[in-house]
Amino acid sequence: MRKLALTTTLLALALPSLALPSLALPAMAQESFPVTVRVDASRTTGPLKPVWRFFGADEPNYATMKDGQKLLDHLGALKPQQVYFRAHNLLNTGDGTPAFKWGSTNAYTEDKDGKPVYNWMITDMIIDSYLQRGVRPYLQIGFMPEALSSAPEGTPYRHAWRPGFRYELIEGGWNYPPKDYAKWEELVYQWTKHNIERYGRDEVLTWYFEVWNEPNGPSYWKGTPEEFYKTHDYAIAGVKRALPEARVGGPDVAGSGGAFMDGFLKHVVSGTNYATGQTGTPTDFLAFHAKGQPTFIGDAKEGGHVRMGMHSQLKAVENGFKKIAAVPELKNTPIVIGESDPEGCAACPGKANGYRNGTMYSSYTAASFARIWELSERHQVNLEGVLTWAFTFEDQPWFAGYRQLATNGIDLPVLNVFRMYAKLGPEQLSATSSAQVPLDEMIASVTQKNDVGVMATRDAQRVAVLLWHYNDDDLKGPDAQIALSLNGLGKAASRKVTQYRVDANTANAYTTWQKMGAPPSPDQDQYKQLEAASVMHPQALPPLTVAKGQATLNLSLMRQGVTLLIIE
């Protein structure tokens, strides 16, 4: 984004007259296009929950490593003790060595007589890493320890998947139902009991407990739906036996869950609980997943590009909300979108995933979260969390193209959008943009329009205005010339303004690394430069002149840029 500049009245008046002719020109030929944004600081539209404060990853053991701990520090600093982390593989059998889409803790084995042996050393290390950095567990109970797996004899327990392999090759003995449900419940009971003893009852009461991952698909679940309901019921019974007031839920299905989700919702409301024999299963929150679907357009050698598919993600969100809202007993139940991302596999490479290192990921995040908030309001559901399935991959090549928040300890631009979210206030304000693509249009199909959107909030001391410039096509394009009109600013004659931004040239270590020549192994001086380049610095702007509670501000926003204005 160009540096914010106050423009002349003549320019502000002239820009609208250019709007119609400019539409006929190719995007690359335009220097800028006008956008009118209006914010009314005196008019609130309701509370804005901090739903963004949830993160997660397949690989749990990275949390105990150097770069994982550094990134957890950064996540915890966003909103201390209110950030949550979800991880797969926490009960897998193994020595704790991390790998792509794998992890292990050896929490459960059996002796020669078939008696359980519990070992919490590695799970403690993982949870300690969270809590010491202001992050709390969204604790996934799974997957199945080898000694409890009902997999057919001869089935390899651990998968041999690696980046580039077909996704379905992640299956193995770890994704089968238990062969002994009583031992499964006891394992969950003992783990919960241990966590209470180690971390304290009050702390564990703040956690989320859910069972498994995407049980509606063959990659993560080899049983029937009924076998999953049974596995879920016994696990929840184990948690509740140790901590009756624990916050439990699920089922973290892929997408909105289809018929599987319908059956699960019916079971937890009116089915017979497999573990207790009572009607229904305790459900304090419900979870489903929503993913986009980017594609690669053209030929890479001839300048092809990534085209994002936000409409796919938003459709999944809407369908999930509709399913839950349609069950009267569950309509007000808190919802966590347990994985919410531009596409489905953080560890998978490919041309269609080439958006991840740069500002397409950060602008997509800003534009998609705004629509998810809007969808929750439309369907009147109780949205509590939107979980970004991205963390870091330890000791991998720099900017390797995985879906992550940092590379080798250096934050990517997308993390700065979450830093902006952390500065938003609790009350949402009335805000409109002449170039914000309507929600229904974003859901319908790929949009090739420039989506220049706005969200605004306030607290007792300040107004925050978040602006983004997004387009589904990962191409260069004209800047948005924004005329921002603010009303309801009170009687003060001036207001202090601070700007934060992330774009191709600002708060962006990836651009700096490219300018270095993309060194495969940056030295210590280059590392310091990359670290400095990743930081989003506040910029003090000239004070706003306020007359009768009104003020105006003009700024330019690059394509794929995101900016936050704090007006005190």
UniProtKB/TrEMBL annotation:
<dbReference type="Pfam" id="PF01229">
    <property type="entry name" value="Glyco_hydro_39"/>
</dbReference>
<protein>
    <submittedName>
        <fullName>Glycoside hydrolase family 39</fullName>
    </submittedName>
</protein>
<dbReference type="InterPro" id="IPR017853">
    <property type="entry name" value="GH"/>
</dbReference>
<feature type="signal peptide">
    <location>
        <begin position="1"/>
        <end position="19"/>
    </location>
</feature>
<feature type="domain" description="Glycosyl hydrolases family 39 N-terminal catalytic">
    <location>
        <begin position="36"/>
        <end position="534"/>
    </location>
</feature>
<keyword id="KW-0378">Hydrolase</keyword>
<feature type="active site" description="Proton donor">
    <location>
        <position position="214"/>
    </location>
</feature>
<keyword id="KW-0326">Glycosidase</keyword>
<dbReference type="GO" id="GO:0004553">
    <property type="term" value="F:hydrolase activity, hydrolyzing O-glycosyl compounds"/>
</dbReference>
<dbReference type="InterPro" id="IPR049166">
    <property type="entry name" value="GH39_cat"/>
</dbReference>
<comment type="similarity">
    <text>Belongs to the glycosyl hydrolase 39 family.</text>
</comment>
<dbReference type="InterPro" id="IPR049165">
    <property type="entry name" value="GH39_as"/>
</dbReference>
<dbReference type="InterPro" id="IPR051923">
    <property type="entry name" value="Glycosyl_Hydrolase_39"/>
</dbReference>
<dbReference type="InterPro" id="IPR000514">
    <property type="entry name" value="Glyco_hydro_39"/>
</dbReference>
<dbReference type="GO" id="GO:0005975">
    <property type="term" value="P:carbohydrate metabolic process"/>
</dbReference>
<keyword id="KW-0732">Signal</keyword>
